[in-house]
Design brief:
The structure is a homotrimer.
Chain A (H helix, E strand, L loop, with lengths): L11 H17 L10 E6 L5 H12 L3 E6 L11 H11 L3 E6 L16 E7 L5 H15 L6 E5 L6 H12 L3 E5 L12 E2 L2 H7 L2 E4 L15 H8 L3 H4 L7 E3 L22 H23 L13
Parallel strand pairs in A: 1-2, 1-3, 3-4, 5-6, 5-8, 6-7, 8-9
Helix pairs in contact in A: 1-4, 1-9, 2-9, 4-5, 4-9
Chain lengths: ~300, ~300, ~300
């Protein structure tokens, strides 16, 4: 079983293998061919457009058979546990389950001897989202070639973002300096790195990574209008002019235009927001291959990430 | 980019190409083969059975890879704009987006230099529904061979029907006489052609095209029971006996049986209602091919419809 | 047309053909190849995970093209009849419709000269669920080889279960003794066989088949807590120790753990609950082949089940 639940499941060599493979997929359009048909089930317990479609496209490009499960049309209304649902999918023949769930660490209940299928985490609560981290890494590597010495500013809703944590950890491991900025109420003591005022973070960063405001996860809202938030913590046009030459803008999307980022910047010359989405398909193809090849013992995985 | 947003995007030659192609698909069951896999995304923001399944079948018959987006399970709940959703689908690799949306002319915001994928309109609000018009044309042509000189009566909910407008315009262009009938409250001054009493319309028509009452788009309902409506504006058994020899009945479906049309007439000998549905698949296969071939510049398109 | 609506549509020879075919599918992984692409539409008007995914996997393993219809995203909101929906699917090119519906005998309105496609019943109200019966049969036959002389105890919500009735009839026909146990309020006079106390039923059975409590079909609930129900009518750990050597536990799932059955028994050594799910895919592949081969007259069907 080769699960990808958090970035901690990957060794440095795994990450390199995945990023290289994703780029070779983009260049050659070559695809991997299994001798037997692979069945993938996408289990999305939360609404999603880009992550689900990006995975589904990756699966179809690889020639896999695909089942799509959304919580609206399923037996979870009959009170079945997640464990029983996943065991069922395995008995039906699922080789890989791609799962998004609103609970942090939903996968803890699935790490169980009886479950043999591969699990790829497509987002757990405010926890992890490893394929998003990997596509962010690919986007940064395509721009700067080396991670060592880069400054990445992660800005905004640090408390509820599953991207912030995964990205901060892996970027730090790869030699980046990671800094944070955002409303005090949303600071997150678990994140490694320095907090600083918005203008300073934007000024020193090679990568300005804006986070989406996770309205759906907030219990209390800030006492700010959208426009006030934008002026205080958003990437305004004026702030974008302070950015270093050669620096880039990233955002995991969907974007709240005019809130986290000025409307005009979303597709500006130094924005890589749509390139991130583009990279997502190749990354997910590479991750699905990685899961299958690791399972078959065909990968030399090196040490896991914690030992980087 | 070759979009099909309204019938005005098609030249007379385009229409002829599509109708001929649809018929040759029906005869030979031949399908077009792309060298690279084509990815189509069906974006349905309104419920639909026949249009969505007809498109999806067409796409699968053509060997395309298909993503199905319905508004219930998507990030539109996170407030993303339609433009950003479509740009995302493009970055993911979508070649053609088939879109149904409740807003008239939703596609105006998508006619944008940054969007390169092909858009096929599967219905916008009370506006257009070009593939429905094309399958109506095919059904009429299969019956009468020539359009010139035919009388087509379009009857019922003229104000809210996206079929009425598209069909009336293109049929008039092709040399048909188009007449209308229905409750005064639903008359639509934008439609070209004569209004007349129900019985007269039925008597002179070669094609009696009944429209569905668009309950879901009405803000005020007529002050009539279903039975009263049926007697006043429906195709009753008695009225059907006034129809000319050789004339046919059409309806875009879903049918409100016993309201727009008597139950017994839906599958009567001169009804073409289910044949319309049958023709829908071949028309949509032909339209998808048209979009791809036009994009590659392999079509000689002639003049657009306004110059017919 | 070869419909599978209830087990009464199958002759003894049909059942044998299906069970044998399912096993040969499991062994050889061979799949049937149609010369023309087969289009299957899954029409699920009730939520379902395992049945729908089991069918969809079977269809994809067979290389069929698949449309998935769920009531949430369809025109049934526009008031279309089931007959018209199915006729539409037929015109679109559907060869087989797999249907689940909350109404008992929904299919009566579809047994109509105008409908030519094959219908496979995936569950009607509290009525029938023939593919569930067939996978139960396969599971029992794989265990005991012969049906003759076995005692099968069906236990629990006998009134609302579509499994109880189908299974009881066919098992009796095949030479099993079927006994029942459960709350008096849920006894069902239509079921053939003896009622007995829980402990006795468990003690004499070769197969202890627990039923799911169909909360969603109950108008009045029993005056019992979950724990009280479990003690009175559930398969507790203590009761499981009374079971005969070599006997097995079955359950159609989803399981209410700790209610119908003790948590620890779900994956115990003599449980075949997940094997039932595993067998479901091969059974459904065999049923889909059966429908197509019967339609072409390539099957020698023997006498229908009532004459067994």
């Amino acid at each position: 079983m080769a699960n990808l639940l958090t970035m901690n499941d990957l060794s440095a060599r795994d990450i390199e293998w995945i990023l290289d493979r994703a780029e070779s997929i983009q260049k050659d359009k070559k695809k991997f061919r299994e001798s037997k048909p692979i069945l993938v089930t996408n289990l999305f317990f939360e609404p999603s457009t880009r992550t689900r479609f990006s995975f589904e496209t990756a699966e179809k490009r690889l020639g896999f058979q695909v089942l799509n499960f959304t919580s609206e049309t399923s037996s979870t209304t009959k009170g079945e546990t997640l464990y029983d649902t996943v065991r069922t999918l395995e008995e039906i023949g699922t080789d890989i389950a791609v799962i998004r769930h609103k609970d942090d660490h939903y996968f803890d209940q699935l790490i169980h001897n009886n479950i043999k299928l591969n699990i790829v985490n497509a987002g757990d609560g405010s926890g992890h989202h490893p394929t998003q981290s990997l596509l962010d890494l690919l986007t940064i590597r395509q721009e700067f070639i080396l991670f060592q010495g880069l400054t990445v500013a992660i800005i905004g809703d640090l408390r509820h973002s599953r991207v912030a944590r995964s990205d901060a950890e892996v970027l730090t491991s790869l030699g980046c300096r990671v800094v944070f900025s955002g409303p005090k109420e949303w600071h997150n003591p678990e994140l490694p790195g320095d907090y600083m005022p918005m203008d300073e973070a934007v000024r020193i960063a090679d990568v300005v990574m804006m986070l989406r405001i996770q309205h759906e996860r907030h219990q209390h809202t800030l006492d700010l209008t959208k426009e006030e938030y934008h002026q205080a913590y958003g990437l305004t046009l004026k702030r974008s002019e302070m950015m270093k030459k050669g620096s880039i803008i990233m955002h995991p999307a969907p974007v709240n235009r005019g809130v986290e980022i000025a409307d005009e910047l979303v597709e500006s010359e130094n924005s890589r927001i749509f390139k991130q989405m583009h990279n997502g398909v190749a990354i997910r193809m590479a991750v699905l291959e990685w899961a299958l090849e690791t399972e078959r013992g065909e990968m030399n995985r090196g040490e896991l990430i914690k030992e980087w």
